[in-house]
Structure formats: structure tokens, C-alpha cells
Amino acid sequence: MAISTNSPSLSKVSLPIEVLASAASILLYNFRTAFPASASFSIRQAEKGKAGPVFTDNGNLIIDALLPDELFDEAEMLEQKIKGFAGVVDTGIFLMN
Asked: Strand pairing partners for 18?
């Protein structure tokens, strides 16, 4: 399923991936080995006066992924691939059926 966007390049926008805090380090490694070298992954850090990572209301962490545009051509498969990793809670991919 292809998605459309008004954004000129999705690879310039972070895709948020909510992950269990206990799995964040291994997920960073797994994502970096499972996706093209042009992709990058980092744990979202707090801004302005707060040190350390951002935690969700459920105590999870957010990994920001910068992915090549072509991976979004098959957004449904991309979401399934990401959610297939143990420790992933959800993604910022919103599919329309």
C-alpha cells in the first residue's frame, strides 16, 4: 500500500517508534543492521532544561528513525517489519484503509 504526503521528502522527517525502555539499546542495534545504511536511528532526547531521554506516559522511550523515502512506498510492510521486532510498542505510521 503506497501512501501519499504533501512533504517533499519523508526521509527528512523523524518517524517515531515507541519502544520498551528495557529493549531500546538492542532495538537500536537491530534497526541499524536491518535497514539500509542511509537510515539512522536515535533515542529522542529531552529539550530545554531537562536532561536525558523523553519517556512516554507509559514509561516507554521514543526512537526517531530517519528512513529513505523508498521504504515508505510500501508503508504497510514497513510498519509490519518494525512492529516485528520484540520490544516495539507502536509506530508513527498511520495507514488509511
From this structure: 62, 90
Residue 22 per-residue DSSP state: G
One-letter amino acid at 7 equals S
Cell numbers describing residue 54:
523523553
Helix then strand then coil, in percent of the chain rounded to 5, is 35, 25, 45
What would the pLDDT profile of 28-87 be if each residue is shown by its tens digit?
999 999 999 989 999 999 988 888 999 999 999 999 999 988 888 888 999 999 999 999
Closest CA to 32 of 69, 54, 65, 62: 65
Q: What is the C-alpha to C-alpha distance for residues 28 and 56, in angstroms, rounded to an integer? A: 18
- Short-list 75, 82, 80, 73, CA closest to 28: 82
pTM of the model: 0.83
CA dihedral 26, 61, 66, 25 (to 10 degrees): -20
